[in-house]
Write a structure and sequence with these properties.
The protein is of the alpha/beta class. It has eleven helices and 14 strands. The strands form four sheets. The protein has a seven-stranded mixed sheet with strand order 1-9-8-5-4-2-3, with helices on both faces. A three-stranded antiparallel sheet has the order 12-13-14. Strands 6-7 form a two-stranded antiparallel sheet. The longest helix has 22 residues, at 6-27. It is globular. The structure holds pyridoxal-5'-phosphate.
Amino acid sequence: MDFIDLKSQYAALRDNINARIQRVLDHGQYIMGPEVKEMEAALSAYTGARHSISVASGTEALLICLMALELRPGDEVITSPFTFAATAEMIVLAGGVPVFVDIEPGTANLDATLVEAAITPRTRAIMPVSLYGQVADMDALNAIAGRHGLAVIEDAAQSFGATYQGRKSGNLSTFGCTSFFPSKPLGCYGDGGAIFTSDDALAQACREIRTHGQSQRYLHTRLGVGGRMDTLQCAVVLGKLERFEWEVRRRLELGEAYGAKLRAAAPGLQLLQVKGGRDCVWAQYTVFVDDREAVQARLKQAGIPTAVHYPRPLHHQPAYARYAAAHACPHSIAAAQRVMSLPMSADLTEDQQDRVVSALAQALG
Ligand SMILES: *Cc1c(COP(=O)(O)O)cnc(C)c1O
């Protein structure tokens, strides 16, 4: 069993993806070819954001947004320490200071009730992470940001396709940033990502930053990066959009089914909480276990792959330890010790899911 089954997905979409890749090879516009604009238009139609800007990766999306906000050295960005490193890494690279605020123990998302107390005169932005595919309390975060004149950047790398109060993840705040890394809910066959915004001036800034700060060819108005997404990868995303609605539906169904089956087979197991007014696209189907290493070893013996997202909160990582002092994050520390992700993808079969559930119930004793 694959942890994430990309082979069945390719088998289902093979003709469409192959034809789209062939078209790029035929026209030869490998950089900023027609598929780039076509994909950006499709993503805007899907998310409802006025602007979709394709970029080289999810990491690059975060960096370009932060550059568009023109942080001054020492400006602070409030974020969760329980995330992939790129979230805080790009804050530092853009000249800012990550201010880590703890997560809710149930959802593992940034705890909005702790954010206002962490705001200082240097705060410029809040960067919640839609971890595992569920959006954080965005209404509360947007309200706080509005009161204090801050930008909100949603790290939506794991949540493309999720909804919050009927609106799509990525289109909920100043910026949304997603990733098309192959294993994300919408992936390409390499690196790719996108920025979503409905702010015309910020969108223009992001487009310029994406190509070395050029406002026109060889006129470098601002500092930028080489941050474009390849035409070939945009063609792959377009191919995958063909059945993406089905995949999202299937992910929601499999998430529900995992919950029901695990509650029945392993009643003591702590599951991720999905809060009201939103759904989770389960980029990872993550549960909380004690004695994780032993459970993982038993599952491995039963042929069930697992993973840990993430084993160490960022304020305990050597590169970010200097930002640890401000706020205690006990729930992030506890989650890092206990989270374990199970096989998940739209092509996971019910039979496979049943095998995972019974192996886990047995592994838990
Ligand atoms: C995957 C991921 C990123 C980075 O995306 P890449 O496309 O791999 O650069 C950033 N933040 C989170 C939460 C992620 O899961």
